[in-house]
Structure prediction request, 375 residues.
Amino acid sequence: MIGPKQERGVYIHVPFCQQACSYCNFYFVTGQRDHTDFITAAIREIKESSEFFGEDRIIHSIYFGGGTPSRLTLKELESILNQVHSTFTVSTDAEITLEANPEDITKDIVNAWFNLGVNRISLGIQSFNDKLLALMRRAHDGKEALHAASIIKQSSFRNFSFDLIIGQIHQDLEMLNQDLRYLESFKPPHLSTYLLTVEEKTHLHKEIQRKRLPDVADRTQEEHYLHLMKWAEEWKYTHYETSSFTLDGYHARHNANYWNHSPYLGIGPSAHSFDGKKRYWNSRNLNEYIASATASRKEECLSRIDFINEKIMLGLRQSKGIVIDHLGLSEIERRALDKSLQAVNPLHIEYDSRKIRLSNEGKLYADGIASTLFL
Prediction:
């Protein structure tokens, strides 16, 4: 259930994209589309979810993700924001994030978002290198990425995050260093950095299967990730979650809801929700979602063991690690955990009777270590 220090968030999945990126397996639709039916359905779902958090309707974050939320018009964004404010009590210091792509960034639109109440931008740069951007099938080039980053840096936004993908096919260490040098010039308060993952059914997966591209090299990914962690430490970023780096005071509050098992409401096609007991997910089809809104939600009630295993997985992703007493283990389960810990490479993990944390090298194997510790 909701604890006294837990925050609540609302996520809005905007599924519209200009084109399909080669690596992306999130739900999206491409091309020029009328957004009217989606906006109507999203507003209806927000209204129908008024009791989702129970009696306490205070929320602490709103996050527009996707897809590409920056493809919505100001009027469309405003209508969704107005409905969230009408349905819930938005805290005065709420974090309100909008994901955006460089090709959508202008001085006027950034100022307009700020005046609308958005107070955090997450910019999907991924790289400043034209060769890598072309391989990812991004809609922008390096020049557009630099221009967008410059606009945001000089805007009224003090809180913004840049996305970067590392360990890419054909990416060498000099390419990574060039991206990092650009980041040094902008010094974004927050960075979200991801190792390139090849997901099934994506264009990238098909190209690798057809031998048109080499597979991702584990050695390259390890080298890039360790190099990034060293760079971040030198530039005073705190590596507080596997893929997240922050300057002091700029951690992602909304994302922390997921990592800390806090309740969150997901709006839109394919969006997920969690109320403290159950997980919910919407139809991964825009037309079905438009036709049914909350009626398309499926749900799963988590068992006690599910909760414990999720706490292990999510705790290992964070620099603060796992407080063992917070897992609620029985004596038998505690002994089983102690035995499992002995099976983990001691260079990858740090633990005592109270806490479990990953070493920097261990962060490369977070998922595998978590599965080893699952009950």
In short: The chain has two domains: 9-259, 304-373. The mean pLDDT is 95. Residues 66 and 209 are 27 Å apart (CA to CA).
